[in-house]
Specification:
The radius of gyration is 34 Å and the shape is elongated. The protein has 25 helices and twelve strands. Helix 8 links the parallel strand 2 and strand 3. The protein has about 525 residues and is an alpha/beta fold. Strands 2-3-4-1-5 form a five-stranded parallel sheet.
Amino acid sequence: MARLAFGLRELRREAGGPTYATLARRGGCSAATLSRAASGDRLPSLPAVRAYATACGADPELWEQRWRAAAQELAALEQTEDSPSPYRGLARYEPGDEELFFGRDALGAELLALTRERRVVALLGPSGSGKSSLLRAGLIPRLRRMVQSGEDTAACPAAIRVLTPGAHPLDRYRSALALAPGDGETWVVVDQFEELFTLCPHPAERKEFVAALLTAQDPDSRLRVVLGIRTDFAKRCEEYSGLTEVMCGASLTVTRMSTAELRQAVVGPARAHKLVVERALTARLIADVAESGFALPLLSHALLETWKRRYGRTLTLDSYERAGGLQGAIAQSAEGVYARFDATRAGIARRIMLRLITPGTDDTPDTRRSATLAELEALSGGPGADGVLDALARAGLITLDGAGVGLVHEALINTWPRLNDWIGQSREKLRFQRWLTEAAGAWEAIGRERDVRISPIRLAQFAAHVSDAERDDITPLEADFLAAGMATHRRTLRNRRAAQALGSLLVATTLLTATLARRQRRPLHGHQRQPRH
């Protein structure tokens, strides 16, 4: 970096020592930017170096090569694989990430105030608006500070519990809704509340879970509930009058970040790690997000990939463009890991990714679902799935959380064209598979009943959607369940045919008996009619 700066100063001297104002007119770049480029304080941007060279009458291509060499040298000196990233990519910000969570101070304070006033609160926002991060890194640290400061004893938390509904919310979280010991209140934060509609198949369980949450509305309750709900599932919430009241009178909608807030979200985490974000990059990111609407996961992932390609301690516009930009970074990351798989592992990756999708309907979009590690290992051939799960997790496409696996964010569904194509090609099959997984799990839970019955319609769907070449798409448990159901169906058909045959035999026997009886009576009747002599 010092050699590059010295070279630029020499270039200016050889050009006759023009002022920076003169260089600015010649190169189309500000005098301050050109002056900083030659100062040696930090690596200048590539456009600044090219403008400097052009203004001095030198070859900009040659100086671009020198800039890249200096950047690589600086990266080798300062960048290590173990250095933590200030950005979370597609992953949500957690309570421990508060120091890196920028741009949502005003909304976080507004949410806290609303939760103090109302016992059940809904946080509404579209996918990509940052609801999960706001709940976890914006609200929860504020609640914890209430405990530490001893303020607002009426709402002070005795416990803070975070959950996502999943397929069986009441069975799984009944204990989480129980009051914690002590004088404070039990706060339950239900993130991704829409899972109640996309993953829980039983209307009665959904209704009971909602009723359990709404008990917090009782003024004497020591339970407080905060729901994170995607706006495209708000209509489904209207099925429950209590939720409608919450959304009408105790809700907060996540709005788009202002320009100042976006700048904080970009620059704040970098400053916390003593990194520098090029001004040109900040301006470009703000412009790209403004064109894309709610795109915070895309922004965070693009920044993560830019950070991986940084030059020394500087995140540059050139690095951002090489990462794929706002719209292309996710697809570039996903294709990068997928391209390293051989044909067998690529097939396993496809099956894993589709297992983590719940296909939408005409009224609802495709969403993610969680799967157990055991389910995916059974599907893909053993522990570790030949390293595919680990590779997908390292690439930031999935999360491995204990025994659970899930897509890191639903943004992946729409921004990775390959995954979107897989879903489109397999939509009806995915609907059948989601039913099959749920039904097979219930069958396993009751001890694998031998005489399990599967409707002929479901068996026909199995024949239509799972060919012999696609048997790897179902787990051994699902295969056993289908085999048991088909065996029951065959026995039922055999019994039905046997009953029909027996019925036919009984009918024939009855007819034969009646015929013989009539024949036996005819001679007797004829003899009785003869006159006497």
